[in-house]
């Protein structure tokens, strides 16, 4: 996150750190992507986090990547479901969404606490210009390697028309994605934040409106972050989470 501040305990209880077992040590897990807890046994993330989905765990309820906190829950990933129409081009990523089914018993995987809670899904589109929140452990203006502490920042929803202007992203956007950020630059998501949440207020609750997906680098003028449009995938999410259990 560029231009972010530390997330206070319990303020982003749906935030997930997706971790893969590091190649050289046969013990340690390394953060690779963000994700969002939407049900006790289901995490939503970006499709482009998929290469990393073998031998994965998710960590919930933690703020620091380098400390083991008593509030943390580490859970193995049972199955990864990447969208059938996931597609990458050199300039954009389409249908950038995946579901992770967690290991558990009797439909209980993550246990709800003050620090671990599910996020609601949105039920309608939100207005352009609305202020929403992004969070993650990704690269910052000071560190390409990312932040040890979970960071958050406020960004504004940018209209598809504005974001498709030639000096922004031109004609490569489609309705599986939207832009959010600040066209002057400075505040943005970045590498390592991918798959993590963009949450907005809807019906007096926080809803998971977007997933960090891509962008032309980070924090640059006229190059806002691009987010997976979760409202476009509500039927897909329902179908996948109800079919497998
Ligand atoms: C990335 O490389 C990435 N500024 C994620 C988000 C953004 C750019 C790049 C948005 O995963």
Task: Describe this entry's structure for a reader.
- It is a single chain.
- With 245 residues, the chain is mainly beta.
- Helices cover 6% and strands 36% of the residues.
- It has two helices and 15 strands.
- The protein has helices at 160-163, 234-243; strands at residues 5-6, 15-21, 29-39, 42-45, 56-60, 73-82, 87-88, 93-94, 98-102, 131-136, 151-158, 177-181, 197-202, 205-214, 225-229.
- The strands form three sheets. A six-stranded antiparallel barrel has the order 10-11-12-15-14-13. Strands 2-3-4-9-6-5 form a six-stranded antiparallel β-barrel.
- The protein starts with a strand and ends with a helix.
- The mean pLDDT is 95.
- It binds 4-(aminomethyl)benzoic acid.
- 4-(aminomethyl)benzoic acid binds at residues 188-191, 193-194, 212, 214-215, 218, 225.
């Amino acid at each position: 996150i560029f231009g972010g501040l530390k997330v206070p305990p319990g303020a982003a209880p749906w935030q997930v750190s997706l971790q893969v077992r590091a190649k050289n040590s046969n013990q340690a897990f390394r953060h690779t992507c963000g994700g969002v807890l939407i049900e006790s046994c289901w995490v939503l993330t970006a499709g482009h986090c998929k290469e990393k989905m073998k031998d994965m765990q998710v960590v919930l309820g933690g703020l620091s990547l380098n400390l083991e906190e008593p509030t943390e829950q580490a859970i193995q990933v049972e199955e990864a479901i990447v969208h059938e129409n996931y597609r990458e081009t050199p300039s954009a990523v389409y249908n950038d969404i995946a579901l992770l089914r967690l290991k558990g018993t009797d439909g209980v995987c993550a246990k709800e606490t003050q620090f671990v809670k599910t996020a609601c899904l949105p039920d309608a589109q939100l207005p352009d210009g609305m202020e929403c929140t992004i969070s993650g452990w990704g690269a910052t203006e000071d560190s390409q390697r990312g932040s040890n502490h979970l960071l958050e920042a406020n960004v504004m929803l940018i209209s598809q028309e504005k974001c498709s202007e030639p000096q922004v992203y031109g004609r490569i956007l489609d309705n599986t994605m939207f832009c959010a950020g600040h066209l002057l630059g400075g505040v943005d998501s970045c590498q390592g934040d991918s798959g993590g949440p963009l949450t907005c207020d809807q019906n007096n609750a926080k809803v998971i409106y977007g997933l960090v997906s891509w962008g032309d680098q980070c924090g640059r003028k006229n190059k806002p972050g691009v987010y997976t449009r979760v409202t476009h995938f509500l039927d897909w999410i329902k179908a996948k989470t109800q079919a497998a259990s």
